[in-house]
Amino acid sequence: MPKRTKRHSKMRKKVSRAARKVRKIAHKKISATKKKVSAAVLKYKSSVTEFLQKHKIPFEVQPHKKDVWAAEDIAKQRKVPLSQIVKCLVLTDGENHVVACVPGDRKVKAGLVKQIAGTGKLEFLHEKHLKKVTGHPLGTTSPVGLASKVPVIIDKHLAKLKHVSISSGHKKFGLRVATKDLLKVSGAQVGKISD
Question: Global pTM?
Fold first, then answer.
């Protein structure tokens, strides 16, 4: 009996050493991966990424190889269908502002936005006021991480998608997020606002 216990003890020590080696290797790989992710997040940082991280919303960075402004070009850069691109347009009645989000392949209908938002007649906010209202430069408005409390309306066609690609508030990259997460953290209303 004592010999069996001794052999068993030696075997446990070998297994324990092997397990420690495996844990050490796994820890190194996890640490390396965390460093890569942290470096990517630092490289691609904006008010939108900070907002999503603060609210524990997962996202995927979609870098742009060059500066692009048109939804079609953005879709090509991000390698996603045009219908998944979230075009955010800031509308105003002179007093109230609203961010209207439509798919990249559709056009916003100000009259439909007006009905949902309960505002006066809407027109596009002049670009000189855009940064003050959204905190984002022209062409990079996102439905989240806005500088001021602005109501957001997301078109029903976007709400049906599993994932969407939003602007990051920075011209060098976009972000892929789950639509359900975006709807939750943006506090957006959903309705038919495009044609």
Answer: 0.76
